[in-house]
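Entry 14. Structure prediction run on the chain below.
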Amino acid sequence: MSYIVFARKWRPKNFDEVIGQDHITNILKNAIKQGRIAHAYLFAGPRGIGKTSLARILAKSLNCQKGPTLSPCENCTSCKEISESRSFDVIEIDGASNRGIEEIRSLRENVKFSPSAGKYKIYIIDEVHMLTTEAFNALLKTLEEPPEHVKFIFATTHPEKVIPTIISRCQRFDFHKISITKIIEKLDKISRAEKLDVDKDALFAIAKAASGSMRDAESILDQLSAFSKNKIKLSDVTDVLGMIEEDYLFEITDKIFQKDASGAIKLIDTLINEGKDTKGFIAGLIEHFRNLMIARIGGKSLESLLDLPPEIKIKVLEQSQQFLVTDLINSIEILVAAQEIARKIDSLHIPLEMAIAKLTSINSNPEPQLKKVLPQQNPKETGKENKPKIKQNPEDARQQSDSAATSQQTKEEDNPNDSVQMFSDVTFQEIKGKWSELINILSKIKMSVATFLQEGSLIKLEKNILTVGLPKEASLHKELLEGQSNRALIESSLSQLLDKDIKINFETTSDRLQGETPHGHAIKSTIDTFKGRLINHWHKQD
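Output returned:
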């Protein structure tokens, strides 16, 4: 007998063997028990997760000699013919190659005839979304009122492309991607049955590479069984698939925490020289930081959201304690931005190195960072003693700034000339010249503030009040920048940079001012992606 690949050999034969779709199999089993079988079903979901397999199982359950039954016998003529795709009563149609109106007209004529041996004539149409609009319309009447002996089962990876009038005539079931844990369990079972010696790390790597598809996982294992004669190790999986080992993700994350930019970039260079998939690496790194964020937020209470083996979960929980949640959010923003830049320049090497440089410069404590990057005041220039400054939180700084502004306003009313003299040496052009430097400073203190502020346009400077305009579509940015802590951070940074007391006022402009934005918008796409999470986080801060 010719060789049968794992994906076919280990295809589920009954409801109990279907993995990860209990929400569907339970409904179908209850429908069979109660004799409430619908005339049309739509199975929707990603590839390789059991849509066509479950369609065949349902067909066998209905047409088995003992049927309708929850456990097809697999021995009767009907069960064998359905399993081997040669039953006259279960017609499998490929929607991609039979998509025209003529094929559907032929189907409409054939449904009138009774089944030859089984109880039902069952039509399984795979990739049904490939049918033309005319073919769909030709099917509507038959689908709505088919003969009692006819059942339709449609399968599709793109349910949004199926016209609503078809969907409304079917019972729709949405299949889920299969979890890594369940894929590992199935692969382990196959390995033992096929007498393959496979490392646990290799099983995890295969399951992760499959991205929720059991068929893909079985195909990879089948390929590796031919590649490795004795034992399948993690190195075999990474060599064949060009994957990045999980340990690399933990190692580079440790280097990021240690601010070891040189070591992290050397590690990336090593991976590239080994021919690893850099796109897969950055995608894996984004997922890794997402897992760290979930672990840091909820600890063990949210570990169910981490689709990882228990031993990997423990390592993620331990490593997450090294970071603040804000650092992890900023890190994800930076990595997603690198992905976006890579798409534009068709290269990931440089954006990835830039991202690592940014990640290793993140500082969670604004106060020490301010002292590093902001210029020191010169006592000779200010005419004041260089007294040690007392650390203040942003709210206290805000209150003091407001108090100082009130006092200054009183002085101006008494002597307007004093105000003109105080701010006569700060011009609008000088602030524009320093604006990029301010954005750079803020990016090292709080990346989110810098990201939103760079969307603004400088409009005017009146006395000590700088007006920054934000377009209508950036109303959310304006609201967050006007928050007390964020406004205080911007004002204090700008004032120290210019050695003058500067206030910030935000206005909404009718249109985006072309050419006025001091910075580009390389990481704008990340704002939309993480906007919801950032809003909740900032509201808690404010």
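Residues 392-541 form a domain with the GMP Synthetase; Chain A, domain 3 fold (CATH 3.30.300.180).
Filed with the rest of this week's runs.
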